[in-house]
Amino acid sequence: ETGYDLWLRYAPLAPSQAQRYAPHFRYLVADTTRPTLAAAVQELDRGLGRMLGSPPAHAGAVQGNGGIVLATADSPLLSGLDLPLAPLGREGFLIRSVAMPGGRVILVAGNSDAGVLYGTFRLLRLLQLQQPIDALAVADAPKLQLRVLDHWDNLDRYVERGYAGQSLWDWQKLPGYTDPRYTDYARANASIGINATVLNNVNANADILTAPYLQKVKALAGVFRPYGIRVYLTARFSAPIEIGGLKTADPLDPAVRAWWKAKADEIYAVIPDFGGFLVKANSEGQPGPSDYKRSHADGANMLADALAPHGGVVMWRAFVYSEHNDADRHKQASEEFVPLDGKFRDNVLLQVKNGAIDFQPREPFHPLFGAMPKTPLMLEVQITKEYLGFATHLAYLGTMWEEVLESDTFRPRAGSTVAKVLETPVAPRALTGMAGVANIGTDINWSGSQFDQANWYAYGRLAWDPDARAVDIARDWARLTWSADSAIADPIVAMMMESREAVVNYMTPLGLGHLMATGHHYGPAPWVSDLARPEWNPAYYHRADANGIGFDRTPTGTNALGQYAPEVAKRWGDLKTVPDRLLLWFHHVPWDYRMRSGGTLWDRLVAQYDAGITTVEDMQRRWSTLDGKIDARRWAEVRDFLAIQRQEAQWWRDASIAYWQSVSHRPLPAGHLPPPHPLGYYQAIRTPHAPGNGK
Ligand code: BDP
């Protein structure tokens, strides 16, 4: 196997299990003139065909026991059943074993065709996981409305921060040729509830909004539509100048406003269910409203007004920082956006990264969560592992996102976790959502590595239910992707659950962050301190000198902590209560600072690096026990990637310790080996062509 089938492998079931299931799946009833229901039927044919040996017969009506019925609430098939569908909303579903006039069937019902499709995928999942199906009573609905994949794909197919090949979107062949792979992409997304895709990079190119490209986008939208997925595009703020021939992109200029309105009208004439725009403005060199001394609200609202008549939304990113904020980059987004709370149109969501800096292996939650009670906030996570070892390092991100989602913002009260902030609409019918920066490309396994598929999967599951547990998701994924046999799945889950902490330990332990090499972010470079903008330098973040290390964000420092609720600020601001994992994020402490858990900071820092390596070795050991028990090709690929990870963990450890030692002038604690090379050796390593860099 190559990994192409993802978690939708539908591996043949053992004959005894297949025999138990088969009587329930003799035939199926669905209105296949409806594209989404036709897609559901196709999936059942494929899944049941592979798992049970033959697909069900297609029937026009219930005809005895052992059928599957797919139907929406308005279907005459459901009349008289009195199903509790209403509370499940547009995308929820029920799966029930029911007695219908013609016989006992498994009913998959929803309020929309998309709901039925989600239910169908769930039913197939139950079979893949070999669950009992004799008395089915499943009801589920997504907790967030917009469950978005953000592709950082350029029009030349280069994927920014992409480690899985080229962009899937073959713009040159579109719209004439639609690669069947687009359908498999849509299936995979629908199977985990993703209902929106932003096709192009936040570092946007305005060409995507021109008529020829809109025809290409239309073709993709046509493939995705039956799977309940809407297409969105990034809007380059200066597009009115670049492709509209205007002299300005000032959001208050009537000609600019008229241009965007006309552009929105044009887009909707081509793609009637177009989702809307994602915008990165006044961040890392992107144009935006500040260029005209206007606020983010002015910019977002102009686009929102253009989209509103068509039902479109604006996802406006809060990821902003500039060289003018030399006090603390951590603070800039809150400073710019909190005063704008309540000033955005109803069809605007503010898209906020999980942490205030930038997708680091560990960050505390972003202080904006809970701080803008009148503005719909959506969480943005990075599925592609820009800062966690690219595709070769095994790092399951479910645990990282769970850590953010379950963080208590204490706003408006204790228990208001980030998940709750996301799930609670700021007003009746207000928007909710989550976005993940995709890790998908043309690689045969989609994600660049077998295990990175788990991150795509976990993202979808958490966007559907932000309260879901990372371990449950890992268990499902491992069983779907590798084997339903727990002797195989359990060690895989164990590897996944320890994997992210390993990366934190060998890259950025104890609350350090942003220590990666310049530009491409591949490999360690904590020594870099000479880049033009202060906050581009690792030295800006770790602040290590002969006395100590860490960023003082307490009131004696930048007081970024003051942007959190008082309960949070108090806990993290006090050395007696701040968790070790965030120590150096919020505090500058001496090298010989006594850790609450014992020993000095210096000794502990060194020990964390070695702990990271030990965990990778542990993963290697677990993996080696699976040799011969799973398909050889995927097994060998993972084995080789783990070996790369082991080597690079060592590189991170040695280079980092060599550097810290050059600053701290402390001897290594007993039992920890010195780096085999002098610091200069590590500083001389260059990888100028590492993938994913560049705009
Ligand atoms: C950073 C990436 C950069 C992105 C930026 C963003 O290095 O490539 O453009 O995030 O989110 O982490 O806009």
From TrEMBL:
Task: Give EC number(s), comma-separated.
Answer: 3.2.1.131
Q: Which UniProt keywords apply?
A: Carbohydrate metabolism, Glycosidase, Hydrolase, Polysaccharide degradation, Xylan degradation
Residue ranges occupied by any Glycosyl hydrolase family 67 catalytic domain in the UniProt entry = 127-446
The residues covered by the Alpha glucuronidase N-terminal domain are 6-123
Subunit-structure text = Homodimer.
Return the similarity comment.
Answer: Belongs to the glycosyl hydrolase 67 family.
Presence of keyword Hydrolase: yes
Q: What is this protein called?
A: Xylan alpha-1,2-glucuronidase
Give the Glycosyl hydrolase family 67 C-terminal domain ranges: 448-671
A single Gene Ontology MF term assigned here is:
xylan alpha-1,2-glucuronosidase activity
Per the record, its GO cellular-component terms are: extracellular region
Species this chain originates from: Sphingomonas pokkalii
Write down the Pfam families for this protein, in alphabetical order: Glyco_hydro_67C, Glyco_hydro_67M, Glyco_hydro_67N
Q: Does the keyword Metal-binding apply?
A: no
| Classification of source organism | Bacteria, Pseudomonadati, Pseudomonadota, Alphaproteobacteria, Sphingomonadales
So what does this thing catalyse? Hydrolysis of (1->2)-alpha-D-(4-O-methyl)glucuronosyl links in the main chain of hardwood xylans
Q: Name one GO biological process term.
A: xylan catabolic process
The residues responsible for catalysis, as annotated, are E284, D358, E386
Return the PANTHER family for the record.
Answer: ALPHA-GLUCURONIDASE A
List the residue ranges forming a coiled coil, or say none.
none
